[in-house]
Design brief:
Blueprint (H helix, E strand, L loop, with lengths): L1 H11 L2 H26 L6 H14 L4 H17 L8 E8 L10 H20 L5 E3 L17 H6 L3 E2 L16 H12 L2 E11 L10 E10 L5 E6 L20 E3 L5 E6 L9 H6 L4 E6 L11 H11 L3 E6 L8 E5 L2 E6 L4 H4 L5 E8 L28 E5 L12 E2 L2 E2 L4 E6 L8 E8 L2 E10 L7 E12 L8 E16 L4 E5 L9 E10 L6 E8 L3 E2 L5 E4 L5 E5 L6 E9 L2
Parallel strand pairs: 1-2, 2-4, 3-4, 8-9, 9-10, 14-22
Antiparallel strand pairs: 1-13, 4-5, 5-6, 7-8, 10-11, 11-12, 14-17, 15-16, 17-20, 18-19, 19-23, 20-21, 21-22, 21-28, 23-27, 24-25, 24-28, 26-27
Helix pairs in contact: 1-2, 2-4, 5-7
Length: about 575
C-alpha cells in the first residue's frame, strides 16, 4: 500500500514531495520491521507453536501491532508530505518588475551575455523559493539594447535581437547562435521551472504585402517548460508606438500553453489588455489563468494605473492574472490576482522622479481552481429617467489628466508622442456637511454616469474636488495601428489649476490634502454604447493603493455598477467603470 502511495505522490507532485514521501516510507518501514523483529525474537517450542502463533495473529487481524503501525504511518504520511511548499490545489508563481538589461552602445554579443546572466539570476532566485512559473516583463532583454532614435525594421532583425526558428516543441538550449531563446530555455531547464519571457521573433514572410527585408518582426511572448522546451509562442496582437519598426498579426493571435502542474495559461502583452479579441477565444476554451508582460509607464497621476487595470481585468473575467511590468522612470505596477483578489502587488508612485532601478520579485501561491463565474444578472434600470434620453449632455465640459505646467498640452506624452485626450462632462461633489449623501449625474453622448456618495469629513470649496467624470473619446496614438474607443464613468479626486467658462481642466492627484474630505461609500452606475464587449471595474485609494476584492462589489450587465466601501483611513484616488469594445 505504501509503495503504491509513494509512486502516486511522485507521479503527481514536485520532486520535493517525492523525496519526502520516499524518505518517510523507508524510515517507517525499517523502524517497524526492526521493532517487530525484536518483539518476536523468542524461543520456539516446536512447529505446533509456530502455527498456533500465526493463527492468533490472523484472529487479531487489523488490530495487530504491525497493522496498527501501518495505519498510523498511513495517517501521518499526508501530514509529513503536507509540509511541502506547494499544495495540490495551488501552484507557486512569481512575477518580476525590473529594469531592462543592456545598452545600445554595446555589441550585440555583450548585451546578450548581460541578459543571459540576469535571466539565470532571476530563475535561480525563483527556484530557491520553489516557484513553478516565473513571468518576466516586456522588453527586458531588448528594450535597452536598441537605439530607438535610429531604430528600423531591418536593424532589429539584422542585429540578432529578433530570432528566427525554434518552433513549439523544440529545446533551444545549446543553440550555437546564443540567442535569447537558448538563454531562456537553458535557464528554465537548469532551474526546473516554467519561464515566460518576452523577446523579438522574426518569421519569413511568404505573402504579398511583405516588409522590404522579407521578414515579419513580432513582439513575442514565449513560454519554456521545466526541461527547456518551447511550450508556446504568442505574437502581440496590438502593438503600441512601435510601428512600422515592429509588426503585428493581421488578426488576433490567441495562444495558450499547458503545464506539468496541471494549469493551462493564456498569454498577452501590454496594449493587448485594452482589447478583447485575443481574450474571447481563450475564455471560450475555459482558460482562467493568464500571463501578462508589459512595459507600461505612469509619468503623471492617471485616471487609472496599470495595476488597477490588472486587478480590474482579473475581477471582470473572474480569472487569475500573473502580471510583470518593466521598471522604468515612470513605469511601475506588477501583481498577481485571483478573481480580483490581490495576492501580491507592487506599485511605486515615485518612480517618475527617482530614476533608479527598483527591481522586485513577487512570489505567492495561486489557487488552481476558481469558483465558476455566475451568469450575468441583468439589473433593473436604476439610472435616472433623464439619463435615458440621448439628446442632452449633463454636467460641465471638462478634461482630465493635464500635464503640470502646460495647461494647453494633451494629457500624456510618451517619447514626444501624445497618447490620449480624454474629454467629457463632470459633476462636482457639493460642499456639504459631514455625513451627507449626494447623487451626481454626468453624461456625454451614449455614456451615462450616476454616483451615490456618502461624505466623510468636510468638503470645502477650493482647488481640490471630488468629481464624477463621464468620458467618451476616440484614442489614436502615433505609430500605433489600432485606435481605441474610450468610454468610462469615473469618480476621482482632482485639482482645477484653471477654470474657463467653456471647460474645466481637471488634474488627477496622487493623494488628497489632509484637510480635504473624502467619501465612505460610493455606488457608481453606468450605461455605455451597446456595442461594447466588456466592462472593467477599478478602484484605488491614496497613492494608487489597491482595495481588496471584499471592498469592491461589481455587477456586470447592460447597466453595470461598482460599489466601493472605504475604511476610515482610506481616501479615494479613483473608481472607474471602463468599457472595452474590440
Amino acid at each position: 500500500f505504501l509503495l503504491i502511495l509513494c509512486f502516486s505522490f511522485c507521479t503527481h507532485s514536485t520532486i520535493y514531495t517525492c523525496v519526502v514521501t520516499w524518505f518517510s516510507f523507508f524510515g517507517f518501514f525499517f523502524f517497524f520491521q526492526a521493532e517487530d523483529g525484536i518483539r518476536d525474537a523468542q524461543e520456539s517450542r516446536g512447529l505446533g507453536d509456530v502455527y498456533k502463533r500465526q493463527y492468533q495473529r490472523r484472529v487479531r487481524g487489523l488490530f495487530s501491532a504491525g497493522m496498527r503501525k501501518l495505519l498510523i504511518t498511513t495517517l501521518l504520511l499526508p501530514l509529513i508530505v503536507g509540509a511541502s511548499p506547494q499544495q495540490p490545489d495551488h501552484y507557486r508563481a512569481a512575477v518580476v518588475q525590473c529594469a531592462a538589461r543592456g545598452n545600445h552602445s554595446l555589441p550585440v554579443a555583450h548585451n546578450l551575455q548581460l541578459v543571459s546572466e540576469w535571466i539565470d539570476h532571476l530563475a535561480h532566485q525563483a527556484a530557491s523559493q520553489h516557484v513553478q512559473i516565473l513571468v518576466l516583463p516586456e522588453a527586458l532583454g531588448w528594450g535597452a539594447s536598441i537605439d530607438w532614435n535610429n531604430a528600423s525594421h531591418g536593424r532589429l532583425q539584422a542585429h540578432a535581437y529578433a530570432v528566427a526558428g525554434h518552433p513549439v516543441g523544440s529545446v533551444p538550449c545549446g543553440d550555437q547562435n546564443h540567442s535569447w531563446w537558448a538563454t531562456a530555455s537553458c535557464a528554465a531547464q537548469r532551474h526546473g521551472l516554467v519561464l515566460v519571457l518576452n523577446g523579438l521573433h522574426k518569421v519569413r514572410c511568404d505573402g504579398t504585402a511583405c516588409p522590404p527585408d522579407g521578414w515579419w518582426v513580432f513582439n513575442a511572448e514565449v513560454a519554456f517548460s521545466e526541461v527547456g522546451q518551447v511550450l508556446a509562442v504568442y505574437h502581440k496582437s496590438h502593438i503600441w508606438g512601435t510601428a512600422p519598426i515592429l509588426d503585428e498579426p493581421d488578426v488576433a493571435d490567441p495562444t495558450s500553453f499547458s503545464t506539468a502542474f496541471g494549469v493551462k495559461f493564456g498569454m498577452f502583452v501590454c496594449y493587448d489588455i485594452e482589447f478583447n479579441d485575443w481574450l474571447a477565444p481563450l475564455r471560450a476554451q475555459g482558460i482562467r489563468h493568464f500571463v501578462f508582460s508589459t512595459n507600461w509607464m505612469v509619468d503623471s497621476p492617471p485616471l487609472y494605473a496599470i495595476h488597477m487595470l490588472q486587478q480590474g481585468v482579473s475581477l471582470a473575467h473572474k480569472s487569475v492574472l500573473l502580471a510583470a511590468n518593466l521598471d522604468t522612470p515612470g513605469g511601475s505596477g506588477s501583481g498577481i490576482y485571483a478573481a480580483g483578489e490581490v495576492l501580491a502587488v507592487y506599485f511605486n508612485s515615485t518612480n517618475a522622479a527617482s530614476h533608479h532601478a527598483d527591481d522586485r520579485m513577487l512570489v505567492t501561491d495561486v489557487p488552481k481552481w476558481l469558483p465558476e463565474p455566475k451568469p450575468n444578472s441583468h439589473q433593473a434600470d436604476d439610472l435616472r429617467h433623464t439619463l435615458l434620453d440621448d439628446g442632452l449632455d449633463i454636467g460641465q465640459p471638462c478634461q482630465y489628466e493635464q500635464l503640470a505646467g502646460d495647461p494647453g498640452s494633451n494629457p500624456s506624452v510618451f517619447h514626444g508622442k501624445f497618447t490620449d485626450v480624454n474629454n467629457g462632462r463632470c459633476a462636482f461633489v457639493s460642499p456639504e456637511p459631514k455625513g451627507s449623501k449626494q447623487t451626481l449625474v454626468a453624461t456625454q453622448g451614449q455614456v451615462k454616469c450616476q454616483a451615490d456618495v456618502e461624505i466623510v469629513g468636510e468638503i470645502t470649496p477650493g482647488s481640490t474636488d471630488l468629481v464624477l467624470f463621464a468620458a467618451k473619446s476616440n484614442v489614436s496614438v502615433a505609430d500605433t495601428p489600432d485606435s481605441e474607443m474610450l468610454e468610462a464613468c469615473a469618480m476621482m479626486l482632482c485639482s482645477r489649476p484653471s477654470t474657463a467658462a467653456e471647460q474645466v481642466v481637471c488634474d488627477t492627484l496622487w493623494s488628497a490634502p489632509h484637510d480635504q474630505g473624502s467619501i465612505k461609500l460610493l455606488e457608481l452606475r453606468a450605461q455605455f454604447s451597446p456595442n461594447r464587449t466588456s466592462v472593467v471595474p477599478m478602484a484605488a485609494v491614496d497613492d494608487l493603493a489597491l482595495l481588496q476584492a471584499s471592498q469592491i462589489a461589481f455587477k456586470p450587465g447592460p447597466q453595470p455598477s461598482l460599489k466601493v466601501e472605504l475604511e476610515k483611513a482610506q481616501r479615494l484616488y479613483s473608481a472607474v467603470l471602463y468599457a472595452q469594445f474590440q
